[in-house]
Protein 1
Amino acid sequence: MSQPLCRAKEIYNLPLMDLLFRAQTVHRANFDPNLVQCSKLLSIKTGGCPEDCAYCSQSARNGAELSASKLMEVQRVLAEAKRAKEAGATRYCMGAAWRSPKERDMPAVLAMIRGVKALGMETCMTLGMLDMDQALRLKDAGLDYYNHNIDTSERYYSEIITTRSFQDRLDTLDRVQAAGINVCAGGIIGMGETAEDRISMLETLAGMEVPPQSVPINMLMPMAGTPLADAPKLDPIEMVRTIATARILMPKSYVRLSAGRSGMSDELQAMCFFAGANSIFVGDTLLTAENPGEDKDAQLFARLGLRAEVLTGPAEGCAA
Ligand code: SAM
Ligand code: DTB
Ligand code: SF4
């Protein structure tokens, strides 16, 4: 586009039609606007997490009624991944409710990565904070993406999480990048933050030396028993603005319309795709929360004329 790139705040606050037009123009210059990348999530270790993230059903410090599970067996994970591949997912994302991985769990985690790669899918993991050695071992096993969200602005972070800092998050992201793994990093909106916080979060992501290849934008799913269980519902147009601004600031990244789709109409999701979202989680569960199932998404895609992206080459490297 010939317009000069203005500051994130000016972009975010454009009249909605101008914002959407601009985002869609950037989107079309970089992607096929009718293609959507589909990822499938699996919680490989659920609940009992020592961190105190106010939104999360898996924190042992929150009152959510969720029993803690042990790390899943490798063969079960691979059987689930195979099913997801058959249902059309190209990336398999495995999440564990840990502050950081323990040494005793590393062999199983590495075996999961190797096994999912062998199925011909892209691999993604989200295991909490990593040290450099762990990041290198994940890379060596073939990990394509590491998900580690900054969640909100630096200013608002301590209102949501006190057991680690915003800087801890950035440090892990640096290590993931230094190990040569693609970064998946985004955040959650609807946690009582201001528009300034949403803008600041996007500025932090876009200002990284290499912006994340994948940017999940989650709408808070209020989970019973958590401090945010009764958070007031955010105006959904703020979701559209957040996605459009992410698209303009990070033109080559996949922007994922992430948690919260089960509470959204087809029309709202269509607006999010028009704003530049080009990735979703498929399947009827996320980690612990609900997601529209296969049938609903098949109907949505048919209604909108969208197609699921397929992997063309080997699952090696960056798909972005
Ligand atoms: N324990 C790891 C960590 O925190 O990095 C990985 C799992 S954690 C559940 C992954 C991300 O899911 C969080 O960073 C957050 O952005 C998102 N998330 C968790 N609970 C959510 C909720 N109730 N609504 C929306 N997004 C949520
Ligand atoms: C991300 O940004 N969203 C996903 C994934 N990365 C790990 C997780 C969403 C979790 C929603 C709440 C739940 O399922 O408990
Ligand atoms: Fe633990 Fe991750 Fe949930 Fe925070 S978001 S409580 S680190 S599982």
Protein 2
Amino acid sequence: MSSPAPAKRLYIKTYGCQMNVYDSERMADVLAPLGYGVTDDPAGADLVVLNTCHIREKATEKLYSELGKIREMKEARAAAGGQMMIAVAGCVAQAEGAEIMRRQPAVDLVVGPQAYHQLPELIARVHRARGERLAADFAPQAKFDALTAERRPTGVTAFLTVQEGCDKFCSFCVVPYTRGAEWSRGPDAIEAEARALADKGVREITLLGQNVNAYAGDGGLAGLVRRLAKIPGVERIRYTTSHPRDMDEALIAAHAEVAELMPYLHLPVQSGSDRILKAMNRGHTAESYLRLIERVRGSRPGIALSGDFIVGFPGERDADFEATLSLVREVGYASAFSFKYSRRPGTPAAAMPGQAAEEVKDERLARLQALLDDQQMAFNQSQAGRTLPVLFEKLGRHEGQLIGRSPYLQSVHAVAPDRLIGQIVPVRIESAARNSLAGALELEPA
Ligand code: SAH
Ligand code: SF4
Ligand code: F3S
């Protein structure tokens, strides 16, 4: 009697944006035919992949400290007669390349975001010869063709990358260097992937791109949204992240006309000061952003708005920061992400005069976040008493409870039977906290 070959264990840790989350899932898919099953225990893994982010300094430091820990696990495994391979993927891999293996020799493989389809081959090479270990070419089409063939969605919501890269060159940002030029997948391949997801039970698809609304396929992002909305089973569509410069009339109109397109828009502005926006090379002003928001709200009243902010950009004075606070007050965000400016070598802003002191950044970030937190709480509370369609995603923390999302991307929990997972159900919102809503089923389930 022969027993099946023991399964190999794959541990993937993901940092950074949702595009990395998507890529990590695809890496697991492409490695599954080689016998790799995902584990959440790095110590017992045969292959450890760290899918990295380069956006802020701490992320890189975190990577090296994480690699130190993984290296100890690798040594422990070797001492016990086993083997572990360590791979670094993602944007730090793209940016630093072989430097990573120099700083941490326990790393076997460095693979950039455009080369994940080569993982099986790269792993085989490491096994054989410790030869060619670096793959960081830009060739997105080949990557997508090879990676999306075997998707195994695990829930009722899924990410779908439709665009990669960035041509905007904001002066603070590494993404145009780590992810390459703006590039859009063909709509046929995207539709095929969306159909396959829907067939497997996915009800909500979030279209991803570093600048997703720069999607350049036929009809732009609006055309793509309309096309995907027709797929049976696709009940909700979202997209992220958008750039104000690429927010065209067709997309704004789609928010009014396509019921499947959820009333939520993540539209980073970064700063409310025109001086700073100019130094950031954002290509828009505070005023043009506010007018854009007005048009979006005109098209889809009640839409939840979200954004990204940077405080302490080089040269930011008190008056510039006050302008950011005032823009935030004028917009009224439902949620937001805010960061202290972090100096990234190689970007133009890193060489600018007037780098802000850490205390100044801390103080501004605290004030901005207090305001944004209040707005988020106010937005959530404004839903209390309303009935919202909730897509239930999974079991809640308490017995008998399910967790899902409102159209506005709020997390909602309610007592509900398991079989409602994957369904959109009216839920009466009873109370609101900053990070979630609590509700009750509007109708007794039959
Ligand atoms: N393409 C998207 C997202 C880019 S990265 C966009 O343009 O909005 C996500 C966020 O990280 C950015 O919006 C920005 O707020 C933040 N970020 C990028 N580089 C940064 C840096 N050097 N320091 C601090 N925050 C940064
Ligand atoms: Fe970075 Fe700006 Fe491109 Fe966004 S638009 S990825 S912040 S360069
Ligand atoms: Fe980070 Fe790369 Fe995403 S730098 S935010 S993982 S595109």
Protein 3
Amino acid sequence: MEKFLVQGSGPLNGEIRIGGAKNSALKLMAASLLAEGSTSLNNVPEITDVAIMMELLEAMGVRVQRVGQRIEIDVPDEIEPVAPYSLVERMRASIVVLGPLLSRIGRAKVALPGGDDFGSRPIDMHLQGLEQLGAEFSYEHGDINGRADQLVGAEVFLEFPSVGATENLLMAAVLADGTTVIENAAREPEISDLANFLSKMGAVIEGIGTSRLTIEGVSALHPVSYEVIPDRIEAATYLAALGVCGGELRLIGARSDHMEMLLRKLEEMGMEWSEDEDGLTARVLERLQSVDVSTLPYPGLATDYKPFLVAALCVSQGAGMVTENIFAGRFRYIDELVRMGAEIRAEGRHAVVRGVKRLSGAPVRAHDIRAGAALVVAGLAADGETVISDAHHVDRGYEDLAGKLSSVGAQVTRI
Ligand code: UD1
């Protein structure tokens, strides 16, 4: 079993290249099913989730090949529209093949994803929205069977701006008959990336970047070559590491316009930053100040940033209140931080974090991608050695986290 070995470190100095966004690359790969022929995606990170999506596409009869940071996806005329449990279980995001399969093939059999460490994660909004476009669903043996002879555009009002539901609906609507309007759509940069990719393929989409997406269905899309946006969550991880270690980091490729709220929070905590055409440069000269943190749909603070912010608050000056508004059960790593000497009181959706000067290295466990990365950040601010087990969770979303951090002076290795 792979582990991270982390030692208290700092200050950090140097530059890190930010990879392509996991949460965008996975959806663009699913969207490539919408057009027969060869799609080429650039800046695709070499992480486990992308490997699982490659397996999923291959299981449908699609040829996928990686060449460095590029993947070539060759979609044949006939595909097998099935997402088996063995893959969906390993990656919930597999559910985003539902929309493209229904719109291009008219059939889809997708295993229902189970629960995970975030608490219950229903997909009712995905299904209701697709039903409004004319899809019909039945359930047996743990699978959703979807059918749609021809999807027809409709007005869909999402109860909550769900990232996954917006993506599934967008990918279904591009080949539907007539106009679809998605109201209260999610506005995450990864959704705009998907919409821009679809537009390049020939889709007609208005309102990109807003909460009202209007899609005029077309009869066919064509394959394209496209570059994935940088991963704002990976960038946030290194900013948090800088926050607890001090120093100066250049994040090559990072985009401030995708992480405005986070940068405001970090500024409030005492981080300075500037931007040029190559990316962001951030500096931390003294111990950070505590702030309150509340997660919200974009442009609010992403729930995926929260574990790193909690790790930073553990060693900041003062106390901060953290509120989770997206996922009910996303606090499990807190017990691990407490093992490291953090002063945190959590109840329901809230946690109060009282900063201590240093944490104390301890053996801890990663329960999910971001929680694992947050424990690495905490380990950098701890005396002695932190050993984080279940490192494979982190590999789902990070290409060489240990290597990138050690290249700027952090003491992180894989064992
Ligand atoms: C995506 C991201 C995840 C990020 C999250 C929120 C991927 C692979 N994952 O997840 O990293 O943390 O957005 O920004 O891109 N909900 C329902 N019914 C539904 C769908 C969602 O009730 O049909 C609820 C969820 O339980 C949750 C909220 O809506 O409380 C947001 O979920 P959603 O935005 O859909 O998150 P994901 O797409 O699963």
Protein 4
Amino acid sequence: MNYSIALVPGDGIGPEIMVHAVEALEAAGDRYGHVFHTVELDAGGCAIDRCGEPLPAESLEAAKQCDAVLLAAVGGPQWETLPGNLRPERALLGLRAGLEVYANLRPAVLLPQLRAACPLKDEVLMASNSEGKPGFDLLIVRELTGGIYFGKRGRSEDGGTAFDTETYSRPEIERVLRTGYEAAMTRRKKLCVVDKANVLESSRLWRETAQAMAEEYPAVETSYLYVDNAAMQLIRAPGRFDVIVTSNLFGDILSDEASVLTGSIGMLASASLGAQAPGSSGAPVGRMGLYEPIHGSAPDIAGQDLANPLAMILSAAMMLRYSFGLEAEAAALEAAVNAVLDQGLRTADIASRGGSRGGNAALPEKIVGTREMGRAVLNAFSLSA
Ligand code: NAD
């Protein structure tokens, strides 16, 4: 099968890590008989340098024509003094809005090999974990194109009063909830709606909408938490969660909280999903998606072979799963990442502090650079054939 993918390497460590995701995709294509046609797009700081704007219209247009978009990271200190609408990060907002990707999926998984990087105690990690092992595996589904970040805002004439508005319509809530339920159906079938329905009218609409939709998914256990309680439960018993669905603002905060629990942002991938992709390849693709690591362009380590490429590779795996429906291919890439961690390979950001043995890895830790880590994933992938 043929698929078309828009690649946005961006700035800083972006191009260094993108290379390894593309190699991983090619390896998956070779093994499973797919062709991934890629087109590289200018966006971010490099686009400002080349064309004077962070997201040239032709980049957005080309991205829209593809089946999915894989983005590394944008931004850097050299562009920080530009006015807000000309900064590299505008490319992200422009792509999200232009591709109409309204549901942001952020998995947060504590891998046993990286146990040492998690700040929580064993007894906390055991709490409410149905498998009786210290760990968690949760997915936060955040509404991405509505709510207070997009609502009416302003200042009074004297500037001394300001307001922002949280507005949600039932269809906006329904489509993101449905994304959450569909994800829950492929996981442990638990979904927690996080809101502030004791105070906010918009949250009461979220809860009503969720209560109605829960009836369509009787196999899924639906629960409700106020956001303040959810923030506490994430650090008291993260193992109790499977899928969390929430608004843009609450999801922004909770997904950062959850990412800290996993130890390294160099490991975390994300997907932002829209509706059915138009697709240029003719493949029976699913939803348009923008896939990216959650970290930024890490200018402090760019060009030094220090960046962890695993979040980028795991983002490519999410693309295979959610936009192309290629579950076996995605799982094989994830297994290859797991295998290199089992071999004790670590980029500096996930190495255990001061020790040569890390986490629960069977082998001593070996600190490697970006390129060696990327090659090791490819090796592990080919050995698993
Ligand atoms: P950052 O995520 O780039 O870096 C934070 C810290 O984590 C740094 O010490 C960095 O070295 C480290 N780090 C990040 N990714 C890593 C990786 N893959 N491997 C090893 N270490 C890694 O966040 P920041 O420093 O606040 O931002 C740097 C630039 O990135 C800014 O211009 C910011 O606006 C931009 N940014 C872009 C995105 C995006 O493209 N989605 C997201 C966040 C920040």
